[in-house]
Design a protein that fits this description.
By secondary structure, the protein is an alpha+beta fold. The chain folds into 2 domains: 44 residues, SH3 type barrels (Roll), CATH 2.30.30; 248 residues, no CATH class. It has 11 helices and 14 strands. Helix 5 packs across helix 10.
């Protein structure tokens, strides 16, 4: 409590003297404030710092400073609650204050500047000290009727560990993920042994490629054990029956081809190749360049096979999407996680249905020295 006669507490007996003394005490601070304002006006303007944001699936936003992302967790200092660690499964997206909103921003307010690409696999050759890369595309679409944001995420079945870590976080930010996986029988039962044998050569070829190039297999790099992830592919038996109807087969169906593949894979020793880093990178560059011409392969001699492996399976995946859109709530984020070779046909079919194209981003599947 102020002492009796304190000039900051006017008294009834002498109000004038109290106000006068208050005014005298306020004069120096007023002059200081005026001088500070003048100095601030003459100083160069400071750049406004925009905070980072973590948008949760629940709709809540954390505002503050991003500490980093690792092991599928977001480390963040919120302006209100302080340091927090948020599992990526609960995060819709991370928006950095110092970066322009990208493909994974909460909203895309401007339409995409151009049409979607015709191919969703790109090869960038190394240039000088700059490493090359094999890149796969991610397309963002929007359906007005259900207010659904749809991501088509291009997969490659063998890739760098960091690629799968990024894909995992992207997919886990969605409410529903529809993924590609033929490796099942009808009604989800194990496929018959004869079907497994038919596709076994392709599986072993992928595994050998993974070992030769020092990459990771997709099923090992991505965790599918999520209750909101759903298989949106056909079963092995139906696929084989469809190919028989169309008079086509897998490239590995002829016994001679299977035998040659077994011979070649038996000769190639991944451990020996790993000792020659230069040769490994050369094989990696050549493989990446070949994968980038996937659209040419199925547009030529293998066009009929492409109609089954690509077009027909895409229709099956989009049928699952239709059921999901009809049954689920509005405003969700949904992803379709399929081989990048499926995306051109899938994108065009969705655009024909009236979905809005909102852009494309590229992820590095392979880094090539």
């Amino acid at each position: 409590m102020a002492a009796r006669g304190d000039p900051l507490q006017p008294t009834r007996r002498d109000p004038y003297s109290a106000v006068t003394m208050n005014t005298r005490r306020l004069v120096p601070p007023l002059l200081l404030a005026l001088a500070t304002s003048l100095a601030a006006a003459s100083a160069p303007p400071q750049e406004r710092v925009v905070p980072d944001r973590v948008v949760l699936k629940s709709g809540r936003e954390l505002v503050g400073k991003l500490g980093g992302e690792r092991d599928h967790k977001v480390y963040f200092r919120d302006d209100e609650v302080g340091p927090v660690v948020v599992p990526r499964l609960h995060v819709r997206t991370v928006v950095r204050g110092d970066a322009e909103p990208g493909l994974f921003a909460p909203l895309v307010l401007e339409p995409a500047a151009s049409a979607p690409p015709k191919n969703f696999v790109r090869f960038e050759a190394p240039a000088g000290e700059k490493p090359g890369a094999l890149l796969t595309g991610v397309v963002r679409l929007f359906e007005e009727r259900t207010r659904t944001t749809l991501f088509l995420v291009g997969a490659v079945h063998v890739a760098d560990h960091d690629f799968y870590a990024r894909v995992q976080d992207l997919l886990d930010g969605c409410d529903t993920v529809l993924f590609e996986r033929v490796g099942h029988g009808k009604a989800g039962s194990p496929p018959p042994d004869e079907e497994i044998a038919r596709y076994d050569a392709l599986f072993r070829l992928q595994i050998k490629l993974k070992d030769l190039l020092g990459l990771e297999f997709q099923k090992d790099g991505v965790d599918y054990q999520r209750d909101f992830w759903k298989n949106a592919d056909v079963d092995m038996e139906s696929l084989s029956a469809r190919m028989k109807e169309e008079g086509v087969g897998l490239p590995t169906d002829p016994p001679l081809i299977r035998g040659l593949l077994s011979l070649v894979m038996g000769v190639l020793d991944a451990s020996k190749l790993g000792e020659n880093a230069q040769f490994r990178q050369q094989i990696k560059r050549q493989s990446a360049a070949a994968l980038a011409t996937f659209d040419v392969l199925f547009g030529g001699a293998m066009q009929n096979l492409g109609k089954v492996l690509i077009d027909w399976r895409n229709d099956a995946a989009l049928a699952v999407l239709d059921r999901e859109l009809a049954a689920g709530p509005k405003g969700r984020w949904i992803a379709i996680f399929y081989g990048a070779g499926h995306l051109p046909d899938m994108t065009q079919k969705l655009l024909a249905r009236g979905l809005e194209y909102q852009g494309v981003d590229w992820l590095k599947a392979w880094v090539i020295e």
